[in-house]
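Q: How do we represent a protein-ligand complex in a form that can be generated token by token?
A: Start from the inputs.
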Amino acid sequence: MCEDCGCGDPELVSVDVHEHLLAGNNRLAEHLREHFVQAGVLAINLMGSPGAGKTAVLERTASAFAEKYRLGAVSGDLATDRDGERLRRAGILAKTITTGSACHLDAKLVHDALHEVPWRELDLFFIENVGNLVCPAIYDLGQAANVVALSVTEGEDKPLKYPVIFERADLVLLTKIDLLPHLDVDMNALRDAVRRVMKAPAIIAVSAKTGEGMGEWLAWLEARRP
Amino acid sequence: MHEYSIVASLVERVGQIAADHPRAVVRRIHVRIGDRAGVERVLLQTAYDTFRARSVCEHADLAIEAVAGDELILQRVEMEVPDV
Ligand SMILES: Nc1nc2c(ncn2[C@@H]2O[C@H](COP(=O)(O)OP(=O)(O)O)[C@@H](O)[C@H]2O)c(=O)[nH]1
Ligand SMILES: [Mg+2]
Ligand SMILES: [Zn+2]
Ligand SMILES: [Zn+2]
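Then emit the structure tokens for the protein with zinc ion bound:
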């Protein structure tokens, strides 16, 4: 086996590691969490499918909180700065993180992006994750809470099909409820599916278009401010 | 397909561990993947097989132990070290 010196049989060495596969990310996420806690910034990791209405909720949140709090955001986007532009127009200090082929944000991408947002001066910091119900779920970003936006157009079965992301959510925002009169979706079944997978079920139904439910969402955020 | 980025960090970590053992050949890597870990075991294996070539893991099999829960653990690394 030993080709260099021919000294005989190789020794078998077994190293016990017992370490999380994302240990590197998790360490950096803890570091980010310390930053946010020390600076008194409430950091929210907002996840959901593409088109779930994540950016729209943030736009509406920004106009409601404009006089009261300083808002910042980073948004993960495969290729464009469109969400960043929308968020800045809404008054949020926002920076796009272009992820290229990566389908999720990780702690390093967020930490790097902090250099370009005056995050220490903020009250609320939103991390709009890449639109995806699978990959973002397992990456800790140092957030105080995970929020999953699920639009009422996506179907009642999505929580059951993508349980991991809902299991790790602190809040599920059911979005676009102004569309309900036009849809066949069964809201009770949808709420039921969410409750079945969330560890501690918390659901707020909102419309970024009409503003319905936004008060409850804003109160939820305020209750979590450090 | 975050399985690819997970494999990239796995291979990097195994490289660090192997570096403590000069001229070691990594033979087997044991990981434990929970059914709620958010990682597809089949995709992880595929990603590993794509990634291992010309890396420290080239001669190492990936042994995936399927468990319940959200575990996502690098359990053990087995190497052959020349007996000098
Ligand atoms: N009717 C209605 N449309 C919405 C609402 N929120 C978002 N949309 C629309 O849904 C689409 C996707 O919204 P966007 O905020 O970009 O979703 P994101 O990809 O999750 O950030 C856009 O065309 C929005 O205008 C809502 O509350 N009601
Ligand atoms: Mg968006
Ligand atoms: Zn730092
Ligand atoms: Zn992915």
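Chain A is about 35% helix and 20% strand. The interface with chain B takes residues 1-2, 4-5, 7-25, 102-104, 106, 134-135, 137-139, 163-165, 167 of chain A (CB under 8 Å).
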